[in-house]
Amino acid sequence: MHNCRHRRPWLSGRLLVSVLALAIVSATVGAGAALLLRPANEPAQTSSRVTVVATTPPPDASEQPQAQPAERPSHKVEQSPTSSAPAAGTAPEEVASQEQSTTASTQPSAEQHAESQEAEESQPVEQTAAQQEQQASDIEVDPPPEVQPRFAITTTPARLTQGEALALTVESEQASAVAATIGGRSWNLIQTAPGLWWTVIAIPRDADTGTTAVVVDLYAEDGDWLRSASASVVVLANAAPLEEVTLGGTGTPADPADVARDIAVRFSDHISVSGPPRWNGPWILPVEGEVTGVFGAQRTYDGVQAQGWHHGHDIAAQHGDPIVAPAPGTVVWTGEVILHGIGVIIDHGAGVYSGYWHMSLIAVREGMDVAPGDWLGNIGNTGLSTGPHLHWEVIIQGVDVDPVQWLGDDRPPLPPVAPDSEQTADTLD
Ligand SMILES: [Zn+2]
């Protein structure tokens, strides 16, 4: 569970304890490496949008999109002749440019297309013929296509760093349920309006860098798979600096069961999506102070490289300084664990939780609603900590992310309002 050069976990130095915690969390959340630091200047937020306006052929008779995992039901995605934006799986430079709209479509048969037009009630017959001709000149479809309603995916930001989060919006006129997968991990979505689903997705600290696909599957009311499409996001390396830690003193070994509970409370026990997002703007700092540790940093302990990474954002402050809620939510856990000491966990909705650790005092009870600025408790030095500080964590459906992203404008955007029908018609022109 921990580096063999550390023969066992010790309770007396926060750093050594961190070695143990990191090793175990790494095994729990997904092992891996990666390094490097978040750029000092964040790029402007970008979005990637994929709109499937017409048809997709059956999944067994089509090509595999470049960035789509092999095990997914496949579909053929063709770029619209009128679109200059890149399709899913394009190079990072192209995707990063700005708001993008990628249209994926295939040619319907005349009869089916006519049915589609009737359903949309927005296209003159003359345009239908011209549109068909244009599509026929550029697109080849092997099997007889099947007309399907509009289906759009938007990811924002479309370019982000390992350990940051994005918002995924799915618009579909036909789905009863929607599933999203990225890097082999599935994410729960919230239906925020008829035909509209949304969620926040964490890019794990150890995710592969480069262009990756968010694959969205639509399901019918009876559970049958309907169709899928993917949107690409560009994952940049987390460049947190290596933190060198010097250990001192001795201690007693931690009970592995206590350590496992520490991990479970912070990660796996609080992953459910309890409802829509509770926040409606940037979060505020829970305490002012010197930043003594950043999310994603790898650490050496007496020169020995630890597994995993730092899962939170450390702010040193005076013992007893108040810690406040950075965003609205409900307190779902208060108590003490072996490594991180006394803590509070808040559910912010949408599967987003935040944790506050090494506290000296808890000022809230489980079940309490909190607003930004509400007093949660005080700075302390409990658990394996070498000085008074707050270890602040943000966990999304069980995956830890950098809390700092939530303070700024590059945080994931909130759900959009319900899609209006005029906008839908525009995309068909
Ligand atoms: Zn920390």
Structure, explained:
The chain has 429 residues and is an alpha+beta fold. It has two domains: 14-38 and 239-397, Glucose Permease (Domain IIA) (Distorted Sandwich), CATH 2.70.70.10; 48-237 and 418-426, Macroglobulin (MG2) domain (Immunoglobulin-like, Sandwich), CATH 2.60.40. The chain is built from six helices and 25 strands. It has helices at 14-29, 92-96, 110-120, 125-138, 256-268, 421-426; strands at residues 48-52, 102-104, 151-156, 159-161, 165-172, 177-182, 185-187, 190-193, 196-202, 210-219, 225-236, 243-245, 290-293, 299-301, 304-305, 313-316, 322-324, 329-337, 341-347, 352-359, 361-362, 369-370, 375-378, 389-396, 399-401. The strands form five sheets. Strands 13, 16, 18, 19, 20, 22, 24 and 25 form an eight-stranded antiparallel beta sheet that branches. The protein has a six-stranded mixed beta sheet with strand order 2-1-3-5-9-8, with no helix packed on it. Helix 1 crosses helix 5. Mean pLDDT is 73; it is low at 1-44, 54-139 and 419-429. Bound molecules: zinc ion (ZN). The site of zinc ion (ZN) has 5 residues, from loops.
